[in-house]
Amino acid sequence: MANLNKVQLIGNITRDPEVKYTPKGSAVTDLGLAINRFYTTETGEKREEVTFVDVTLWGRQAEIAGEYCKKGRSIYVEGRLQLDSWEDKTTGQKRNKLRVVGDSMQLLGPKPGGAAGSSGSDEEGGSAGYSRPASHAPSGKFTGTRGAAPAAAAPHPEEEDDIPF
Length: 165
Fold this sequence. Notes:
Structural class: mainly beta
Distance between the termini: 40 Å
Largest sheet: 5 strands, mixed, barrel
Helix content: under 10%
Strand content: 35-45%
Number of strands: 6
Radius of gyration: 18 Å
Order of helices and strands: EEEEHEE
């Protein structure tokens, strides 16, 4: 029987990420992501529904998130679902939480608080090539841009120094 565990999300970061390191030196960070859904009811009333999702990033993806992701920034995350289970210390009840483990992340749009009069190009380091698979080992080896969206316009030459890799 075939199995598939793949998630693709676009949303806004709900809190500034904090990068931590495992004892073996791997970077890890947890992001909160808010995903909005707009719909119209049968009576014609327009509504908005927000879903909050926890995302864990590892390796270089975690470091990039810590440096470039701030509350309110839009990102694209591709990954897999993981169920965490534990026993609540105070009540003794078994608890479960579903989270997304991100394999790749892509920054979207301009930085929050950036220039509002942007020319539409990718001046603020938006969607032009910030996608790499996350590494779960501290080796730092990456295999490319699996799952990346088609490249947007190249950044302006004076902006090239802002690219983290």
